Amino acid sequence: MPSIPHLRLASQQIAQRRYTTPREVVAALGAIQAQDYAGALWSIGLRLAEPTSETAVAQAIAERQIVRTWPMRGTLHFVAAEDVHWLLALLAPRNIAAMAGRHKQLELDDTLLARCGGIFEEALQGGQARTRAEMYALLEEKGVSAAGQRGYHILAWCAQKRILCFGPQGGNEQTFVLLAEWVPPTAAPLPREVALGQIALRYFTGHGPATLLDFAGWTGLAMGEARAGLASVAEQLAQMVVEGQTHWLAAGAQEGGTAAHYLLPGFDEYILGYKARGAVLAAEHSQAIVPGGNGVFRPTMIADGQVVGVWKRTVKRGPVVVELAPFGAVGVDGWRERVGEYGRFLGLEGVVSDKD
User: Fold this and answer.
1) pLDDT tens per residue, the chain (356 residues)?
2) Distance of CA 347 to the CA centre of its chain
3) Most CB atoms within 10 A, among 187, 197, 295, 303?
């Protein structure tokens, strides 16, 4: 039987890299998790058919080819520009409803949140971009406290209401812009049943093999809608049963990367794109990936489709130094090429730490 990890390496464009632009990669997967900005750039870069650079991927943001926002699960993702409006329309309402309790704790009711949206629309119209600190200052100037987590939740609500999205870099900081100006909608809204089918097809072709539970967990959809979305495109997919669980994947999918090594950033889709991660991550290593269960996923070493260690980088002067921390007896030599690849992405020499 085909291997789930090897099929996923191929479907996720880690092993069989077919696309040449960041937009194509992001669209193929449906979305790429992006709360760690630098890591998300590498998640995209490592999936491109030809070597690229961090600068080139960031340029795709500046050129409005990909957009960073909160489309699903209240978590930042990159999405293709042409997908941002229908994905937010499909997925954001459930996110907003899920945050109602927290908004109540923060004394953020719908009237106040709508007022905040109006403040931002007035300040950013005409192509203006503001940093997070500047956005909070706008609120404070109008008598709205952004203290604690209030500012973050206001920004996320406005993004999910399709008022804001992240814009280009402002020095070392990300900026916010008006979504309708940055990426104007170019098509009529998708009927909900069509959108459900679209995101199901993207997910299973870009992440498969995966289960219905994986899909529901990734999108944040209720099980009924997740099931309906899958049912509407099931004839376009293949399926395989592993340990009694039906997994869906692209028709004609082939394995890839059976012996290759990969350095993935933290929060990469190869790990976070699934509700159940046991196919690629042994249970005894879960704590090493998410220490203390704090929700912060560390960068991972992948060999033969399995997570075999973690890594971290140090960038000061000169090269980027990568310290490898394999879980067992893993030789360093097989990883030097990937460290070099990562260094070139950053525009630096990549070297393995002499601690390894």
Assistant:
1) 679 999 999 999 999 899 999 999 999 999 999 999 999 999 999 999 999 999 999 999 999 999 999 999 999 999 999 999 999 999 999 999 999 999 999 999 999 999 999 999 999 999 999 999 999 999 999 999 999 999 999 999 999 999 999 999 877 889 999 999 999 998 888 999 999 999 999 999 999 999 999 999 999 999 999 999 999 999 999 999 999 999 999 998 887 655 589 999 999 999 999 999 999 999 999 999 998 777 889 999 999 999 999 999 998 888 999 999 999 877 777 899 999 999 999 999 999 987 76
2) 23
3) 197
Q: For residues 36 and 267, give the distance between their C-alpha atoms in angstroms, rounded to a whole number.
A: 7
The strand pairing partners of 125, in sequence order, are none
State residue 142 phi and psi, 5-degree precision. -95, 10
- Walk across the sheet containing 66-72 and list its strands: 32-33, 75-80, 66-72
Sole residue written with tokens 């070099």: 340
What string of DSSP letters covers 291-354? GGG-S-PPPEEEETTEEEEEEEEEESSSSEEEEEEESS---SGGGHHHHHHHHHHHTS-EEE-T
Longest dimension (CA), the chain: 62
d(CA 342, CA 348): 9
At 107, the amino acid letter reads: E
Q: How many angstroms separate the CA atoms of 23 and 59, rounded?
A: 11
Q: Are strands 306-315 and 300-303 parallel, antiparallel or unpaired?
A: antiparallel
Domains of the chain plus CATH, in order, are 4-182 (no CATH), 192-250 (1.10.10.10), 281-352 (no CATH)
